Amino acid sequence: xxxxxxxxxxxxxxxxxxxxxxxxxxxxxxxxxxxxxxxxxxxxxxxxxxxxxxxxxxxxxxxxxxxxxxxxxxxxxxxxxxxxxxxxxxxxxxxxxxxxxxxxxxxxxxxxxxxxxxxxxxxxxxxxxxxxxxxxxxxxxxxxxxxxxxxxxxxxxxxxxxxxxxxxxxxxxxxxx
Length: 177
Prior knowledge:
By secondary structure, the protein is of the alpha/beta class. It is built from 7 helices and 8 strands.
């Protein structure tokens, strides 16, 4: 992939502030990504994060961020009930999508997200083969267990490679569909 990946983040709550945002702002990924925009519906939260981390754009409205942000990839860290709608909108615009925590709440939604990504040629994280197991897994299943996975996502996009995530043991899964 040539150039830097323009990344937006939906959801600036405590998980994002303690994990995702610091990792996406690390100097060692800045040659590969431009952390361009943050969004949170709580008044003032996205603006505060934007100012603290020197992220150029902030929004209180997700659709506005999609329309104006000029993004290649969306990291979705909003409450899980919003993941399907937000992910589908980003995919329909041709973006790659990284879901923090669970991708969707139903198998039907997961299948629709996976199909939308396939049609647009976009990448998904967690990888689709893990997400198809969603209905049979415990709550919180089909998720990346630590915030540093967003950094692995950047490497995976850049290299078109396999990426690893830790559970009780290291499991390797494909990033491509």
